[in-house]
Specification:
270 residues; alpha/beta; Metallo-beta-lactamase, Chain A; 8-stranded mixed sheet; 9 helices; 23% helix; binds zinc ion; RibonucZ/Hydroxyglut_hydro; Metallo-B-lactamas
């Protein structure tokens, strides 16, 4: 049983996305039965081609909320999932806004594309969905999209947590307590707090409040003001006593036995 996480970039926020100074393709989780794409923002397909990852075989798509750096390539991923829309296949897991639209946000994934999935889940915090050999549990966020969610992914090799976009809220402590790999969307460094997002110090507080700390924290969705991710990773690590690495295009993490992870970077690009 293999469980791998592959990153298609490390960027997020408007400026990093517009300039593509960091990739915004989201990340994928691959097991024997599941090929799940999470938050495919602009360039997801291009980054996959660069990394020689085939989109064919994708059978699940998760989109955390209705902002373009998380959803723009979602419909193309569905087209890959459904053999170019020729057959119904795969599952879509997302929130109310992305699939139904809310206020000024139109549904980001067309009803036509949604209709080609075998199953479609609209999750609210604490809802769960069983897909193939994993279970997804939605977590709460506080962000521009009021229905935005994060996700706790339960695999046969332990849990992976993904905050989605959120500012610090106490529920994150319990929602991600005990995950093996904690993927946190950290837009800014140190104490540079902005509304709707996490900064490094938020993540330090969060992890230090957990009963069981993660084996690894991955900094994801970094904005242009995160100028030295390695230095920032060291800063967070020193303050939480657990390993921290910045996401990178091509970063691959494999969950081995409890206490052991392997990680390597396929290509030295941002
Ligand atoms: Zn957002």
């Amino acid at each position: 049983m293999r469980v791998e996480i592959i990153f298609l970039g490390s960027g997020g926020g408007r400026w990093a996305t517009i300039t593509q100074t960091r990739g915004t393709g989201g990340f994928r989780i691959h097991t024997e039965k599941t090929k799940l794409h999470i938050d495919p923002g602009p360039g997801a397909l291009v980054r996959m081609k660069d990394l020689k990852i085939t989109p064919w075989g994708t059978n699940a798509l998760f989109i955390s909320h209705c902002h373009p750096d998380h959803y723009t390539d979602g419909e193309v991923i569905i087209e890959a999932m459904t053999k170019g829309m020729t057959q119904k296949n795969g599952v879509i897991i997302s929130n109310f806004t992305v699939l139904e639209g809310f206020g000024d946000f139109e549904n980001a994934i067309s009803k036509y594309h949604q209709s080609k999935a075998l199953k479609r889940y609209i999750l609210y915090p604490k809802d769960s969905a069983k897909i193939y050999d994993m279970e997804l549990v939605a977590t709460k966020t506080k962000h521009g999209d009021p229905y935005g969610i994060g996700i706790r992914i339960k695999t046969k090799k332990g849990d992976i947590g993904y905050t989605g976009d959120t500012e610090y809220i106490d529920s994150l402590i319990e929602d991600f307590d005990g995950v093996r790999v904690f993927i946190a969307n950290i837009v800014r460094k140190k104490n540079e707090r902005i509304r709707g997002h996490l900064c490094s110090n938020d993540v330090i507080d969060l992890v230090n409040s957990m009963n069981k700390k993660p084996e690894l924290v991955v900094m994801n969705h970094m904005g242009v003001k995160m100028t030295n991710p390695e230095k920032e990773a060291n800063y967070i690590a020193e303050n939480i006593g657990t390993n921290v690495i910045p996401a990178k295009l091509g970063l691959k993490i494999e969950l081995l036995e409890e206490g052991y992870l392997s990680y390597m970077i396929g290509q030295e690009k941002k």
